[in-house]
Amino acid sequence: MAGPSHGPANFWTQANALLRKNLTFQSPNASKNRSTKTRRPRLCYMICSWQCVKGLVLWRNDYTVVNDELYKGYYEGNPDGKINEISAAYDFLNSNEENFEVSIWYNSTLNDGDVLLRIPRSVNLASNAYLRSQRGPGTQMLFEFVKGMHPETNQVAHVDFASYLGPLFFTWVVLQLFPVALKSLVYEKQRKLRIMMKMHGLGDWPYWMISYLYFLFVSSIYMLIFVASGALLGLQFFQLNDFGIQFVFYFIYINLQISFAFLGATLFSNVKTATVVAYICVFGTGFLARFLFQSFVESNSFPKMWVMVMEIYPGFSLYRGIYEFAQYIILEGGMRWEDLNDSENGMKEVLIIMSLEWLVVLFAAYGMDVVVSLGSGVGRRQSQNSRMNPLSFFWKPNLQHKDSRLHVQMDNADVIQEREKVDQLLHESSTSHAIVCDNLQKIYPGRDGNPEKLAVQGLYLAVPQGECFGILGPNGAGKTSFISMMIGLIKPTFGTAFVQGLDIRTHMDQIYTSMGVCPQDDLLWETLTGREHLLFYGRLKNLRGSALTQAVEESLKSLNLFHGGVSDKQAGKYSGGMKRRLSVAISLIGDPKVVYMDEPSTGLDPASRNNLWSVVKKAKQDRAIILTTHSMEEAEFLCDRLGFFVDGSLRCIGNPKELKSRYGGSYVFTITTSSDHEEEVENMVQHLSPSANKVYQLSGTQKFEIPKSEVRIADVFQAVETAKSKFTVFAWGLADTNMENVFIKVSREAHQSNSLT
Ligand SMILES: Nc1ncnc2c1ncn2[C@@H]1O[C@H](COP(=O)(O)OP(=O)(O)OP(=O)(O)O)[C@@H](O)[C@H]1O
């Protein structure tokens, strides 16, 4: 009972201390109790009314009233007795009496079912952590009680932030890893880096393994810092729960989370959308878990089965696990392995659900990834028996084959010759040519009422090692479709191509290991430096150690990316020209035997372009390069042979000189006089060459094509001098045919022949 030293003020001061300072109800025998698994045997009741706690009643675990008077005094609302009796209760709490706990009633009627809060003896009440983390309104009542009865101790509401937010806060912290992983995966997809890596030899499995292990490593470090800093800060949540259980729980969860990120990445193609959705999920999950899911967990009436169903959602299973850790700190001073068998402990079910789900989601994500890749033509399975072999040529459907033969017969002799070369190579099974296209076709299916589009038709092409083959053609001719088939982005509709003897329909993964690609867009990581890009792709091409370092240095130097610290700047800070040069460097690193370059010099200044040309010219010596360009100058300078694409088919093939002489057997003569003398000029040209052809006339300026066979340059000079003596010649010029003329001629002829058929 209350003694003289336990007057009212003394009690409240001490009660306050009890709630916010160091007083614990820890029994000296607490550790012994744990092994005997007495979960809630200790009783010491606190009775409260609606607004404030009315007092304490002490109970033994057999529900015998220890102090009848105490209970009676409060029940009757005797204010004087209240203080004294509470003091008595406080004495009792401080005693070594075991097996009691504190509970709060919010009714003035003392019924068992009205218990809102039980404070077990073993709980440390320091810093209010325990009270703050309690379920239900009992906690708030206890604070009201202390504050109301002892106003100067308002600071009792001092909040231990981590404990107060507890499961919600920690759930958010752990969930932060999800947007990070998702964003990174979608970033690689959106910027086509995944395809780029694949095109440089990184297969699906290695990509998955590397990415998965990377995220696992990052997540593990993050979780280690999370738990270690919590423990170092003195949070019992981390200190007292068994480290083994914490490790297993967080390890399984982060694996599940990473698998979900992989699955999510198959659904998004835009980083911003993925990030926004991920953060909505993170914060929404936290709130839903705290304010909805937790009430289901605590409810006695909500079916446990449905709680388990809800735990299939990883965010809820995470919350449940953290919640159980918090509960065990409050009720038992921490969770131990043997506690997993407690019927009320949801940890075991959560661990089982998460483990199973991890495996299912991992396989589902991989399956989805393969399906998505297949949709884009990347990632095909290999099949046997599809190397270049003579028989494969004859196994094709006859109708298609005859069709294409008819088509070829309408083509130029050089195109027919190329087809015959391909036929011969296929029959010989020769691998002397790095690239052999065999009746390659691409038909895009019709959409939105539009007919299907024949983008590439019946293409036969053989490119030997050491040749740079240029593909020219107007917009929409089918150049990109052709390259996309060759690099595995889309599947051929019919026909195939062999790269180093390997079929692009079935052996793309192997082809990638000896292939380099400089795509039309620069597919780079913004945060990696130029050097890091080359080191990465060099490793993919099996370069190691000093060979790798040397190859990277040489590559950086040759493309002017070495000096001035450029190589160690992030690619995101590069100019457009520097990015382009880095893309070319990537395509050439690791000695690929076949290289595709899609408009490599786009956006380069003349000096950089010349530098790039010399690099490509050097590189082509021991590899086959296919290059598309709109620059005739580039085509002429770099390419050993050129192919002109018009409307999806190859119209002519040959080296630049041949093509110029074939399509440009004439000089272009341009002269400007006054309009009055146009007829005289025309007569002069007719006199020089009766077959001269006027191609242009406007306000005194006329342009003629004069067959080279009919005129000598000296005659033209002579004729102009004579004309000058008769009338004023403002300007004149004589030019040989260039590739642009060839381009225009081929396109024009192709369209004419198309309109005839
Ligand atoms: N996915 C597609 N679906 C339907 N038609 C397509 C598709 N991709 C391309 N095409 C059509 O196929 C034809 C060839 O396109 P492609 O992009 O291969 O031409 P290109 O020669 O590379 O043109 P550019 O020089 O402008 O890049 C075009 O008519 C184009 O509209």
From TrEMBL:
SMART domains in the record = AAA
Q: Transmembrane stretches, by residue range?
A: 164-186, 207-235, 247-269, 276-297, 350-378
Q: Which CDD domains match?
A: ABC_subfamily_A
Q: Which UniProt keywords apply?
A: ATP-binding, Membrane, Nucleotide-binding, Transmembrane, Transmembrane helix
**UniProt GO molecular function:** ABC-type transporter activity; ATP binding; ATP hydrolysis activity; lipid transporter activity
Bilayer disposition of the protein = Multi-pass membrane protein
PROSITE patterns, per database record: ABC_TRANSPORTER_1, ABC_TRANSPORTER_2
- The answer on whether this UniProt entry bears the keyword Calcium reads no
Return the protein name. ABC transporter domain-containing protein
Q: Which organism is it from?
A: Quercus lobata (Valley oak)
For this protein's source organism, the top of the classification is: Eukaryota, Viridiplantae, Streptophyta, Embryophyta, Tracheophyta
